[in-house]
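Q: Fold this one first, please.
A: Sequence and structure below.
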Amino acid sequence: LIGLSSVAQVILGRGEFGQYFSINLGFGIGVTLGIHAAGGISGAHLNAAITLTHCLLGSLPWKKLPFYVLGQFLGSFLAAATVFGIYYEALYDYTKGNFTVTGPNATAGIFSTYPAPYMSLTRGFFVEFIATTMLFLGILVIHDEKNNAALKGTQALLTGILVLGIGLSMGMTTGYSMNPSRDLPPRVFTAIAGWGMDVFRAGQYWWWIPLVASPLGCLFGVLIHKLFIDLHNQPVLESEKEKGQPGMEVS
């Protein structure tokens, strides 16, 4: 809700009520609050790609997958509908009632991600794959108790900062979806709310890229973490003994 609203304010305000940085900040704040809200309930499963990856790794029962994904999709759909309601008059003023997916007054990008006109599907897939790899790798590092985990209570904030950093560095070409739950439900809403089936045809049928690249990126992030970090982790006591330093200094 906060992320999509920040996009709406930038686009519909014609740059007078925020810039690209405020969009990234909005999504970072939204992720932080979402983790605080759902962390103790579900482990903060806000991303279908991450939920699926946990099931594949055996750290989450498969029977929970449909319920978690349903909750994610429903929340994202309702967020899009709420943003539509908040900015309804602004949308009509901006578009004169002509909701378009592409062109100078396109507004579908408020709700879902679309690639830049110069991007190919192959390159766009690669961007989304790498962005999601960095997202899940960063989350694993933040929560890695055997390595240099974040201080207790700061994980949500650091994950929000991680999303902010990815947006600031990799968001220009594809909109850094990194999350099927963030992209598909709002796309379905826009198809219903007046933008039509162009939301699925635009960008060379871009809609399926976030659905496929994100889970693969998560799996690659797990592989990197396992090979280059987790396999080399040492028990804290052994590490402290070898270095001959107090635990606080080692940390």
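Q: Good. Now the second chain.
A: Here it is, same layout.
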Amino acid sequence: IKDWKTRLSYFLQNSSNSAKMKGKKGGKQHTYFRPSPEEAQLWSEAFDELLASKYGLAAFRAFLKSEYCEENIEFWLACEDFKKTKSPQKLTLKAKKIYNDFIEKEAPKEINIDFQTKNMIAQNIQEATHSCFSAAQKRVYSLMENNSYPRFLESEFYQELCKKPPITRVAQAT
């Protein structure tokens, strides 16, 4: 668990540092704070609650990395970004990048999807639309929700986040 915590704090520190750099260039500035036990407990109510929290997403991503399956969340996030793309030219470029990174055989971050879905995507990216990765994204989401998410909720790290810190009493001078 110590290695897991180290990875998460490193991830959060780097995310925070890069966000600060972006903030200086006029972009939004994001900082990550340890969530309250109550906020962390909300993540157990629904997988979407976890994904909606910046810290929750970072914690889940670090957990997936510790299980050697972070390509799932990276693919899901890439698809979410892809769906927001307005320009048809950018849509095609992003579709090809997602395909090369996650879908094609021997891709560097190849996700585990069936042959038919891969073929359908290969055909669809020729004329990319916002829905060309929908079937694969749903499969990956389901895989994370039904397999990784329950393990995350059982992890020692998550259990620690849900614990209330002990109340310390300040010694009073008499």
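Q: Anything worth noting on the second one?
A: Residues 2-24 form the longest helix (23 residues).
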